[in-house]
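Model: You mentioned two targets. I'll fold them one after the other.
Researcher: Yes, keep them separate.
Model: Target one:
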Amino acid sequence: MVSQLDFDGQRDGEELLFVFRRHMIAMRKGFYLLLVPFAILSIPPLIWQSNIELFLLPVVGLIVGLIFFSYHFIMWYFTVYIVTDQRIRQITQKGFFGKDVVELRLSKIQNISYNVPGLSGELFGFGTVVIQTFVGDLVINKVEHPDKIYNKLQDAVTAAITDQKQGDYEEATI
């Protein structure tokens, strides 16, 4: 019987706990690039209302804005964080064809913290999660509901460390 994998690169016996991505506010530059060409190209038809061809400019601005926005949307959508019972896997989209993959074993994590950056973070529900290891820190900016992600990560790390200690204990007794 072939077991079905939940994601590409999943190991045998590895259980997917949850997947998360950055908050949509991380795409705000894409929203600006959607609105700015539309807004700028909407000005000439308002000034010279007798020239009917100028009314196509806002449509052109919207199309150009959608092209810029789609790039930022793809970068946001394909950047994901996968948490399993063994590791955290960060897949970051780099351009249309490239990606970076970073993995951290849960048992190697020393500390997890999060912060919410003031009023805007509270209103829109985003913040930063910092995962500290011996090697360095994995900083995940603009995470949606950082308190919930923090609690889930703490539970996963605690379970991984407990499983590792039980495995070490069983090996020592054999």
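Model: Target two:
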Amino acid sequence: MMLIALSNTRADEGAYQIGLLAIIALGVIGMWRLIQWLVAAPPDSEPWSEEVSQEIAKEETAPLCHRCLAPHDPLLNFCPDCGAAVGEYTNMLPYPYVFSLGDTLRLGTTGEFRRSPLTIAGFFALALVHPVFAPIYWIMLLKKLLASPPSSPEPPQSAPSTPAG
């Protein structure tokens, strides 16, 4: 719409209209090529090798917690080490879902997470599930975000070697 309005304001300049049409045509061709490239790409069904897929499919393979990587019983809803929701259906069951949601919200105010704009926006939006408590949560989240960024752990330094003597 904006392009049409711009073209109407300078209708007397033929070169401007031709240039505008060329830009639009290039944009359409570029979008068409992008769509063709995305559709033609072979889908990767597994992000790992066949050997890893076979190891995962074994019955004796224990599932791992996505947060602390500790093995746990496949029937558990929450990790016994860190409390993260790990059950296959935990987020679909009404009662455990509340605890899973609480764990996620707690992570935003007390835990360490990757600070990207999408993650931060997700924490703000997720707080709207409980609109009465959302302002309190937002204050706590902002307090956490404005605090100094977490220091990265320093690699362990080896002890100075002494000559044997």
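Researcher: Noted. Anything on target two?
Model: The chain has two domains: 2-8+15-40, 63-146.
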